[in-house]
Each structure stands twice: as structure tokens, then as C-alpha cells.
Write a structure and sequence with these properties.
The protein has 174 residues and is an alpha+beta fold. Helices cover 37% and strands 28% of the residues. It has one domain: 3-Layer(aba) Sandwich (Aminopeptidase).
């Protein structure tokens, strides 16, 4: 597997389209009440990273240069991230300890092969090289990915209940 930032891929449109298909296939949210809601979801968890932080949007490519997965990340959680994700306000007290954040997804055939761990390691190495001290993500407390992140050194820093959902803030010091 090769890992490249979006910013280093010449003519990245096709690869970005493939990553977007993976985004929607892997997402736990499958239905949207309108095209506007679907677009807002895509913008919140995908487009904002590709557009604003292409050097931190990492693509995992196979030997034939096909996209297997991606990591959409940023070295610093900015106010625009908070405005796109209002639930993050509930975690504001711990974000400072873990300023970077990420979203990661792989196509179905690439899951369970250790590729996600390799992509996380690459992202974390890049963060360390820029003196970033911690990274976080937010997921559902009962999602299966909680175990994946725990195996990769992430631990719970906070929880937040929103209606019937319970979100967990997982952080890792670098």
C-alpha cells in the first residue's frame, strides 16, 4: 500500500471521486431527507478536509494505484470545524489536549487487513513532524471502530449524550 496526500496527486479528481464513494459506502448514515442534507453531510466529514487541508487528506493506494481508503484529517481543529459539527462544543474542554482530528474509511475488501493502522501511523508521524501534541476523533460509543482505535492507542477522554445517541471522544497523545 502506498500513502499519498491529496496535494501530491496530479489531477486528483478521479481518486477523490473514488474516495467519496468509499465515504458514503462506509458511512453509518445511509439515508438523507434531501439533497441538501446529503451535501451538508458530505461537506462536514469529507469535502472540508479535501478542500482546506489537501496535504492532510491521505489516500491509501494499492499496487495498481487504485484508492483503497482515505484519512481526512487536520492538524488543528478550527472554529469552522466546530461550526460544522455543533456536538464538538460538548468536547471543547478536551480538544485543546488533542488538537488534530481525523476521519478514516476503507472500501469493504480492504478492511481488516491492517491498512487502517498503517494509515493512522502515517498520519500521526506527519503530525509529530509538525510538533502536534495530540489527535482525536469522535464516534458512537457502541460503534465497532472503538476497538480498532483502542488497539491503535486511542483512549476515551470524554462522553456526550445527544438524545438517544452517546458519543465518545477518543484521543491519543503524540
Amino acid at each position: 500500500m502506498q500513502i499519498l496526500p491529496l496535494s501530491e496527486i496530479p489531477s486528483p479528481r478521479y481518486k477523490l471521486e473514488t474516495a467519496e464513494r468509499i465515504f458514503f459506502e462506509a458511512s453509518s448514515k445511509k439515508t438523507f431527507s434531501s439533497d441538501e442534507e446529503r451535501e451538508a453531510f458530505r461537506r462536514r466529514y469529507f469535502t472540508v478536509y479535501a478542500d482546506r487541508d489537501p496535504e492532510w487528506f491521505l489516500l491509501a493506494l494499492d499496487d495498481s494505484d487504485q484508492v483503497l481508503g482515505y484519512l481526512a484529517g487536520t492538524p488543528s481543529t478550527r472554529e469552522d470545524h466546530l461550526s460544522l459539527n455543533p456536538y464538538l462544543e460538548g468536547f471543547r474542554s478536551v480538544i485543546g489536549e488533542f488538537p488534530a482530528h481525523l476521519h478514516i474509511n476503507f472500501c469493504q475488501v480492504a478492511r481488516g487487513l491492517g491498512l487502517g493502522s498503517r494509515l493512522l501511523e502515517d498520519f500521526e508521524s506527519r503530525l509529530k513532524a509538525h510538533s502536534v501534541t495530540g489527535v482525536h476523533l469522535v464516534t458512537g460509543a457502541k460503534e465497532r471502530n472503538v476497538g480498532f482505535y483502542a488497539r491503535n492507542g486511542y483512549s476515551e477522554a470524554s462522553r456526550l449524550r445527544i438524545g438517544a445517541s452517546e458519543l465518545v471522544f477518543l484521543g491519543k497523545r503524540l
